[in-house]
Design goal:
Helix content is about 85%, strand content about 0%. The chain is mostly helical. It has one domain. The longest helix is centred in the last third of the chain and has 28 residues. The relative contact order is 0.10.
């Protein structure tokens, strides 16, 4: 049952994003930024954590989950280090995920030979 709930929540998020892309003139990059910011804002007001506990991976895997992770990292760093935590908290909380994305995309580029559009 948990897998079904996570699948449905992730699907609803993806469907909402697709509708947003189809019905507006927003470009994919801007929609991605909106999702990250939405996750950070929902985390800041205390809504995202209970939603993640209820929905599981369906809520934590999309970009909203990345925004929430950034917020939690900044909050922990500010609580621990004060003002300087604003600058380093997001990096420490998301460094592993960003590094993995960069490394695996670089490895994938060896196999698929990306070409620049002219």
């Amino acid at each position: 049952m948990e897998y079904l709930k996570a699948f449905l929540v992730g699907g609803v998020i993806c469907a909402a994003v697709q509708i947003l892309l189809d019905k507006t003139k927003l470009l994919p990059g801007r929609v991605m930024v909106i999702l990250v910011c939405l996750g950070a804002v929902l985390g800041a007001i205390g809504i995202y954590e209970p939603f993640t506990k209820w929905a599981g991976a369906g809520a934590s895997v999309p970009l909203t989950g990345f925004g929430n992770a950034l917020f939690k990292g900044v909050k922990q760093a500010v609580d621990k280090d004060g003002f300087i935590g604003i600058f380093k908290g997001g990096f420490t909380s998301s460094a592993v995920g960003i590094s993995a994305a960069l490394i695996f995309s670089y490895i994938a580029s060896w196999f698929f030979g990306p070409k620049m559009k002219s």
